[in-house]
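Appendix B, record 7
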Amino acid sequence: MIDKRWIHHPEFTPDEQQIVEELAESLKVTPALAALLVRRGILDFEQSRNFFRPDLSQIHDPFLMKDMDLAVERLTKAISNGEKILIYGDYDVDGTTSVALFYGFLKKIYANLDYYIPDRYEEGYGVSWQSIDWAEQHGFSLIVTLDCGIKSLDKVELAATKGIDFIICDHHRPGNILPAAAAVLDPKREDCPYPYKELTGCGVGFKLLQAFCIQHDIDLESLYQYLDLLVVSIASDIVPITGENRILAYYGLKRLNDSPRTGIKALIQVAGITGTLDITNVVFGLGPRINAAGRIKHAKEAVALLLSEIDEEAQEFAMEINKHNSERRNFDTSITEQALFMIESDSWSATAKSTVLFKEDWHKGVIGIVASRCIEKYHRPTIILTQSHGKAAGSARSVPGFDVYEAIEECADLLEQYGGHTFAAGLTMPLHNLEAFKSRFNEIVSSRILPDQLVPMINIDLLLHLEEISPKFYNILRQMGPFGPGNMTPVFESSYVTLTGKPSLMKEKHIKFDVRQGSSQVYTAVGFGMAHFYPDICMGRPFSICYCLEENNFRDKKTLQLSLKDIKLH
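Structure tokens (predicted):
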């Protein structure tokens, strides 16, 4: 088991400490809560009000995005002329929610459109050659891509010869040359002045529809009904929940909890999710199920579910998708076991600074998940590859602070295709380049990665005495959500705590015990996957814990408990 690093914020300067005290006084909260706000860049009453009470009026003007005027103009022209419009999205959660949002909204005001999701195995990621042929055969003259297209220069060029225009809505990093489309919407374009760069693909599509509504005096409330789809994309694509994303996620969760659309409601039921949905529920409960459709069968099933308005139909789609998710889990478990065995049984892999594994019969739909599982055990940049159409195709995942996309980009001459983000990417190469790629990728990682980046870390927000915890403290803490990247659930450290009573093991994997600090109230602490600490804490010596605070609802009785992240023995 790798020891984790506990990373503490630098102590406040005297000036910062004064801001904490003034904020605590103006908001009538404890210094600990004020300190959490200051750590998040919230320094005064006005900023606090905006943070605790996000408002849709605060989202940015969509026309600040480069090419937005051109995109609205081309979409308007297509509708005015009765052109056939094809809504094209990727097969993951961001892509399928994008299509459901864009197609679902536009279909209410314009009938001559359809949607297209590429087959993960037959067509691969992004705009496919097959889709261009299909669009031509069916008389489409405009394709709106969502969550893909930024690197589809050759496909856009071919489509133009067939009289088909593109509006590209993407959020991945562009290459040096942009596709020759009617409009290219991507806040990561170097020449794009849009103030918020971390929208999902679904978010970029949403901004195009927002601009369309503004241009045509359409009530934005009719668009905001689709925010439940947008929050699913924000949560599942692991983008920062800051700025505009946080506002959209806040209202998306509100809709998800108050009045979810028929398809999502059915998915919540089959997933067995009860209580209030938050970002974590979406990431681990809804996201994998929506993804499973494209991983195991075809992602158009997910879009059909998300667009469904009939309870019985939605229930059938949801149950089918849940079945795909069970299959996905079985593949995931078995391939992860094989991957870990390959690392452990190979002396080079065991000591390398990166992991690159290939097996020709691994299921392409789960290799990204397997890469993440390998990082949980061996904390280093990881690429898992399988054979697809005679090539090696795979997914890369990284560790905090290391840009895996840049490392892959330096191997571009060995690759046929690649794309992605800092922490996740996809790539395809000829089989005969595998060994050369593995060697060069490891050299690049070894030369750049810092020793600390190879050790998992836990960011501690605050040292907290257990006496400072109260229902009021937790209630204010909860209002700091929605939590996710960029606004993570606060992690606290309490030092020199002592056991009260004997710890218990759950399923031989998890640990549960009661703890106090000095004369504080006794709190129950639960550590999932932390049974290895059992013998040491049973010795009775004081120890330190880091944890998140959560509410446990058992038999309608609510109590606060500590969800452990790690334990340090003294």
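Remarks on this record: DSSP finds 21 helices and 19 strands in the chain. Residues 311-344 form the longest helix (34 residues).
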